[in-house]
Amino acid sequence: MDKVVLIISIFFTAMALRKAGLVRGKHVAVITDYVVNVSLPCLSVVTLARLDLKGAHLEVAVIAWGMILAGAGLAYAVGRITALTDRNLRAFVLLSAFPNTGFLGYPLAYAIFGSSGLSYAIIYDQIGMFPLFLTLGFFVAGGRESLGSALRFPPFIALLAGLIFNVTALPLPQLVATSLTVLGWTTLPLTIFLIGAKITFKANHDFRYIATALALRMLLLPLTLWLVLQMLGMHGLPYQVALMETAMPPALSISILALKYDLDEELTVSCIGAGTVLCILIFAGFMAMR
């Protein structure tokens, strides 16, 4: 319960500081740059380098691929039926398909399932969601021309580095491993702070698209996965974490793509904000009943 109180406290403290004007856009930008370029890559490298890939339940990553592709296909069909314009449709597909498995999924997985749960969350995020985000996500947002910038994304470089250390069995020097671990663990509190400091709510021209995207992302896809897992008799911690990650709200990084590629930013920001607050409230209620 202490972890729950800590996460909720950080989240609402960040919101309060932003409302009071003590945390501004320039501060959020600095923290975001640090998390994306330093702490998250450090956490990825040190975790993936030490991960036992042979016994790591890589089907968790397969689950992520399946859910994201299903979400993208379903959202595209819904968007075409409702005659969304191109920039709105691209945003709608991204919001429905890509969950916040890192910025929100990591701290929640750690709070609910501990360090073992966090390792599976990293598999879901780094090996499952992240490669698709760098390929399908960038392609949906900006077409084939956008894929080049994805390859220069620091977390992607960290992903490759961690896998290289893992596959080659090269040991990380103790000082390097310790430094990466210390820097990497700052990711968890800072990401919750960032979400609280960044999310805003705007009056969207049609609330139906926000509700539909969140219903697909946070209800239909995890419910479908739960039914499949029950049918296949797949139980245990790896699948519980996969189910939790599948139920996460839209990824915060979608807002970056929306701004960069001129998508419907109002829909994106409103959907991410509403989904994040809803997730925090559900999470708090769930943990209170445990």
Number of helices: 13
Nearest-integer average pLDDT: 84
Give the radius of gyration. 18 Å
Main sheet makeup: none
The amount of beta strand, in percent, is under 5%
The total count of strands amounts to: 0
Query: Which ranges are low-confidence, i.e. pLDDT below 50, for 5 or more consecutive residues?
Result: none
CATH architecture heading = Up-down Bundle
* Oligomer description: single chain
Which word captures the global form? globular
CATH T-level fold name: Na+/H+ antiporter like fold
Structural class: mainly alpha
For the record, give the distance between the C-alpha atoms at the N and C termini, rounded to a whole number: 9 Å
Question: Quick one: CATH class?
Answer: Mainly Alpha
Order of helices and strands: HHHHHHHHHHHHH
In total, the number of domains comes to 1
What would you say this structure looks like, in words?
The protein has 290 residues and is an all-alpha fold. The protein has a single domain, classed as Na+/H+ antiporter like fold (Up-down Bundle), CATH 1.20.1530.20. The protein is 79% helix and 0% strand. It has 13 helices and no strands. The chain has helices spanning 2-19, 25-50, 59-81, 86-97, 105-142, 147-150, 154-168, 174-185, 187-198, 207-232, 237-246, 254-260, 265-289. The longest helix has 38 residues, at 105-142. It is globular and about 55 Å long. The relative contact order is 0.18.
